Amino acid sequence: MVPTATALAEWAAQLSPTAEDLALARRALLDTAAVALAARDDTIVPVVSGLPDAARWAAIGHVLDFDDLHAESTTHISVVMVPAVLAAGGDARAYLAGAGVMARLGTLMGWPHYSSGWHATCTAGAPAAAVAAGVAMGLSVPQLATAMALAVPAAGGVQQAFGTHGKSLQVGFAAEAGVRAARLARAGATAATEALDAWISLVGGRPDALVLDGPAVPGGLAIKVFPCCYAMQRPIAAVREVLDQVHGPVDQVLVRTSKASVHPLIHDRPRTGLEGKFSLPYAIATALLDPYPGFESFTDDAVNRAEARSLVERVVAEYEPGGDGLLTGEVEIEIRCADGVHVLTRLSAPPGAPTRPPTEAEFADKLGACGADVPALLADATWQSVGELFRRMFPRDAAASG
């Protein structure tokens, strides 16, 4: 049996992107750059100032949790791949090679891997970042396979970090591990390529489930409409669809959905803005209270508003067992108002899902929401120009690294 690392390296080396693949890569570049620029004043920026480029840019790009998601693998592909490619001087083809590997690795690890507590963005991301950086550096197939194996020791990350800087930092570590592994492979380092198969098996995946056909990124990418965990996108959107029917005080909100679909939402009583991004009750509260649940809805002050905390206490969740992803089934939400009116809403696919992709106007609105100057900064963006922009906006502080 051909080692998984070798099979993926051969696929990546031979990749010839279609027009649809290149359009996806273009949108991923713009989306990732925009959400990173939106975080330019975040408290994480000085924290990561001494880290290498890929780690720094990925951590900043993920801290707002506004970046895209690959639903089938439950991984944030672009926030790992784009920084790795930019740090290695790559382009759309390098991105698509890494993104395709990450999607396939995350998928063959499967939902049991994610639901057991692993942060699949990191476990699938580190070896995939090695491919993205390696393609950018012009590595051969054996070198790409070696780089993937060299990234295995860094293929870690757990969901317990959600709601803290640890989540975005471990994403940054995965991106940097891939770049480092590619450089080591280029320099002549050796590794057992079977290490990737051993790792996949150890964390509950099936190396024999690898599928290489289809588009570069099977299933496409989901674009977030709200700056919070993807598991909150559907409940927020469902409530917003019936806001005009909700009048007066709310006595109780009953949420019925699959347990799998809210698996990452580990903070029932959030006390910080970051925890609020991983809270089902707060998803309902912000959807009811705010005209648009945007950046201002996920600050410490917003999460601790008296009216928000009151609504959080009135959310009751009923979970159906089973499920194999964040879009399992649908969400059903019953809003019980003080005047006796009950408003019922159901939703399967939130806005921005691959089956409900954003229009050009909607995507432009998202870029604008990331900062008034962002559309102009990215108007003629290329992979090279975004790399230069990141170096200017998020420079490395050599003194901080010491």
Automatic annotation (TrEMBL):
Coiled-coil boundaries: none
Species this chain originates from: Streptomyces werraensis
Taxonomic superkingdom: Bacteria
Domain MmgE/PrpD N-terminal: 58-197
Name assigned to this protein: MmgE/PrpD family protein
Gene3D superfamilies named in the record: 2-methylcitrate dehydratase PrpD (1.10.4100.10)
InterPro entries registered for this protein in UniProt: MmgE/PrpD_sf, MmgE/PrpD_sf_1, MmgE/PrpD_sf_2, MmgE_PrpD, MmgE_PrpD_C, MmgE_PrpD_N
SUPFAM superfamilies per record: 2-methylcitrate dehydratase PrpD
Membership in a protein family: Belongs to the PrpD family.
MmgE/PrpD C-terminal domain mapped to chain residues: 226-374
Organism classification: Bacteria, Bacillati, Actinomycetota, Actinomycetes, Kitasatosporales
